[in-house]
Amino acid sequence: MTIKDEINRDHELLTEWRRDFHAHPELAFEEERTSALVAERLESFGIEVDRGLAKTGVVGTLKAGTGNRAIALRADMDALPMQESNDFAHASKTAGKMHGCGHDGHTTMLLGAAKYLAETKNFDGTIYFIFQPAEEGKGGAEVMVKEGLFEKFPAEAVYGMHNWPGMPVGEFAASPGPMMASFDIFDLVIRGKGGHGAMPHQGVDSILVASQVVGALQSIASRNTDPVDALVVSVTQIHGGDAYNVIPDEVRLAGTVRSFRDEVRAGVAPAMKRIADGVCAAYGATAELQYQKLYPATVNSVEETEQAVAAAAALVGADRINHNPVPSMGAEDFAFMLREKPGSYVWVGNGAGAGGCMLHNPGYDFNDEIIPLGASYWATLAEQVLPAER
Ligand code: NI
Q1: Ligand 1 centre from 287 Cα, in Å?
Q2: What are the beta bridge partners of residue 165?
Q3: Fewer CB within 10 A of the end CB, N or C, for the chain?
Q4: If you measure from the C-alpha of residue 164 to the centroid of ligand 1, how many angstroms do you get, rounded to a whole number?
Q5: Quick one: how far is CA 78 from the chain centroid?
Q6: How far is the CA of 213 from the centre of ligand 1 (A)?
Q7: For residue 332, how far is its CA from the centre of ligand 1 (angstroms)?
Q8: Cα–Cα distance list, 294 to 76, 136, 184, 280, 376 (Å)
Q9: Span from the CA of 159 to the centroid of ligand 1 (angstroms)
Q10: Residue in 124, 118, 141 with CA at minimum distance from that of residue 71
Q11: What residue ranges define each of the domains in the chain, with the CATH number in brackets?
Q12: What is the pLDDT along the chain (390 residues), one digit of tens a residue?
């Protein structure tokens, strides 16, 4: 591996920073302490700092040479509303909040790269370091974009990275096309006519109708969608009834929908409404659907993914890059930046350590061993995409 020596020398310092972020998790749009530390450190490296986009967002600007080209590197800063089960010294000091997705590590790796790039300036152009709030469910990336991120910081491409537990340390994965799915949610109310559980003929049984609807919704993925496309329609909540002998007036269903293509995604809400209305009509009930589109799919562009893979390969060797990873049905709000600019989102192996926990698991921890690797990836990518004049 050819990790940057300068970054390796900072491994201990960066590990301290990462563990400090881990011990002080902050939720979406509340990253006051984290963003203040990020801004302070960027300024100490001599990087120009802009604060306040999407409330707690931080963008650093670093120029070198004479070039006018510009790229953006992005990390996320927020933690999750969950209780950490780890008892090591750097475990969360705040009950009910935890860096369970490794954004503490993402922030640290980008800081490590910014420090190196500001010291060495071995590139020609402008690098924007984007530290975004609220990746977890609140769409901080979308807010930054809406508040003028790329008008203010006109990058030609944007790059993202996420650690991936279970993938060996020293491996990267990226491919053009979808890496993560779109993320939608729905609420569906089935209204019948309640009555005595012993005299169902006097009402319209909302429980029976709702169970028919739950089954019928599975035909959207299996019968209305091209079999080569991926789609998940999951009913994850059923609420109805309080007594053994009362048929309730209504049942509330809720769930999530995931897909990789806009065309597939666009078809789901209309199909859901058609099925719910049709099944309900057959039984004399009615349906009310509320469907919310949250994150689009995270889709990598071809050229920028070739650049990302080349940078990772320069670090760890081409044989340690997975060029064809199976996309995840999870979602990622970096998708909103990729809707505006070409770019690439890569996974970096977090190894099997920390109990081998998957993201969002109470026993998860970011692997400090990969900090120099991730920081060197960012630095190498910047130096390769914006080569210094020789
Ligand atoms: Ni995450």
Answers
A1: 35
A2: 351
A3: C
A4: 9
A5: 11
A6: 33
A7: 7
A8: 18, 11, 5, 27, 33
A9: 15
A10: 124
A11: 5-180+297-385 (3.40.630.10), 183-295 (3.30.70.360)
A12: 578 899 999 999 999 999 999 999 999 999 999 999 999 999 999 999 999 999 999 999 999 998 889 999 999 999 999 999 999 999 999 999 999 999 999 999 999 999 999 999 999 999 999 999 999 989 999 999 999 999 999 999 999 999 999 999 999 999 999 999 999 999 999 999 999 999 999 999 999 999 999 999 999 999 999 999 999 999 999 999 999 999 999 999 999 999 999 999 999 999 999 999 999 999 999 999 999 999 999 999 999 999 999 999 999 999 999 999 999 999 999 999 999 999 999 999 999 865 568 899 999 999 999 999 999 999 999 999 999 986
Tell how far the Cα of 124 is from the centroid of ligand 1, in angstroms: 31
Alpha-carbon distance of 329 to 88, in angstroms, equals 31
Work out whether strand 48-51 and strand 58-64 pair parallel, antiparallel, or are unpaired: antiparallel
Report the SS3 class of residue 272: helix
**Which one, of 254, 116, 247, lies nearest residue 185 by Cα?**
254
User: What is the DSSP annotation of 154-214?
Assistant: --SEEEEEEEEETSPTT-EE--SEEEE--EEEEEEEEE-B-EETT-GGGSB-HHHHHHHHH
CA distances from 374 to 205, 271, 359 (A): 56, 43, 17
The encoded tokens of residue 384 equal: 């390769």
Cβ–Cβ < 8 Å for 130, 149 = yes
